[in-house]
Amino acid sequence: xxxxxxxxxxxxxxxxxxxxxxxxxxxxxxxxxxxxxxxxxxxxxxxxxxxxxxxxxxxxxxxxxxxxxxxxxxxxxxxxxxxxxxxxxxxxxxxxxxxxxxxxxxxxxxxxxxxxxxxxxxxxxxxxxxxxxxxxxxxxxxxxxxxxxxxxxxxxxxxxxxxxxxxxxxxxxxxxxxxxxxxxxxxxxxxxxxxxxxxxxxxxxxxxxxxxxxxxxxxxxxxxxxxxxxxxxxxxxxxxxxxxxxxxxxxxxxxxxxxxxxxxxxxxxxxxxxxxxxxxxxxxxxxxxxxxxxxxxxxxxxxxxxxxxxxxxxxxxxxxxxxxxxxxxxxxxxxxxxxxxxxxxxxxxxxxxxxxxxxxxxxxxxxxxxxxxxxxxxxxxxxxxxxxxxxxxxxxxxxxxxxxxxxxxxxxxxxxxxxxxxxxxxxxxxxxxxxxxxxxxxxxxxxxxxxxxxxxxxxxxxxxxxxxxxxxxxxxxxxxxxxxxxxxxxxxxxxxxxxxxxxxxxxxxxxxxxxxxxxxxxxxxxxxxxxxxxxxxxxxxxxxxxxxxxxxxxxxxxxxxxxxxxxxxxxxxxxxxxxxxxxxxxxxxxxxxxxxxxxxx
Length: 601
Hints:
By secondary structure, the protein is α+β, with helices and mostly antiparallel strands. Helices cover 33% and strands 19% of the residues. Strands 4-3-2-1-5-6 form a 6-stranded mixed β-sheet, sandwiched between helices. Strands 12-11-10-8-13 form a 5-stranded mixed β-sheet. Strands 20-27-26-23 form a 4-stranded antiparallel β-sheet. A hairpin with a 2-residue loop joins strand 26 and strand 27 (526-533). Residues 273-277 and 587-601 have low confidence and may be disordered.
């Protein structure tokens, strides 16, 4: 979609005319779709269409006289650049001084009332909100005498080239990768419903539907899911989907597992058996749904699939890293060109199905933009100096990968080396942690931040998220983050370990591995867990200030790099194997022209 300043200004002008014609004083555009996913099909990208901001999280609000966009700290820098010259004011969500959407709207609407605007009505597209969200907004606005209207979608009229709802084909995920039949999953859900005293569950999140039915699709960029709903009762399962998406093999498969098919529409209009059915809410008190809690714990086949996928991904990464620095020294490489190179190397691997998210290849100051994505307008050449932050991942049919490496392309400043070392220390401290089964990720988040906190440094994003099994790269309900997320951690979950430091206008550092939560013994105080790295790729050691590293941290690096070598060596040629790090002992700094450190054996 076009994102020029003039096109955004034109859309806002047309929207304000629409508001007047429909008796509204404001409209809210969230990032969600009817399925409440983090990543949505283009058809529902109305917030991006009206504001021009293309981050994965944010909410745009337009009144008859003002416009604002709320987003979190990952996107502060990117949003400020994208909103420049448009009517939208950036609202930095999460900061104490930033008002909530409801607070801001109430204040703006009061001003409109003083200007004798008759209709104090705020509009939303009710289909992309949960009933709970709507109830909360109605309560907040009601106190200010503002009504909420939920039956309008201005993009339907004003977005002239709006993409249609996708109709891509659905495919079966083989049992060898899924590890459990759909019938077994359905019965587990039914048992959970019985335990909760519920008769049915309406499943709207696309990754939950894909997991439950062992199906995959391509309706959402980088996410192998398909647009649909499922209504599961104690004796029936109905899939609501556009039947053009199903070929004969999928139709026969659904028939075999006892799943009825109905046209894609609002399944709440489909009658439920019984006079007073109790439908389980889409979200429960822990912040996750019944399905997400089941899906988050991987079975043996899924875990083995992750391990195989990580080997193939690691091979691609090692080949890329061996190529990178000489290529940069020769000149001519840019952020976009190295993105293409890495994607091509991954595409050579068996079972490759595409990227798991758009690659973040961020050189120098771009590294400080947490979710930076290079474009032809922002693309810059790489030079043999400074830091490259490379956050990338792939979808393989047996697993999803997510890895970040920050790479020294040449001489570094003392500040770059300090930040890199602090991030590495945080990554290792979390990786070494032993913790009780059932605690939340919030309770261990500080471990990744401790070393940088002692230097007065912090970062605004979470430290870790779940990763799907050939599903969405961001998976819940569990997270590791500083804000309270009560979902418990259990063995079998995947979670990333990705602390970072970002200095606007200078550089960014992040080091990320995908981890598997595994059991680590039981004591009189209960069961304990630890994090086992699944990602297999060397960590750049040239920026490290070794005097800041403890022997325990050096031992962890040695053990991790041995794990990487043992896993990848059989798939690499001799020169590629020689590029892998060798074991090291406690090190001390030795100044050098390249800003590297000499390892003291």
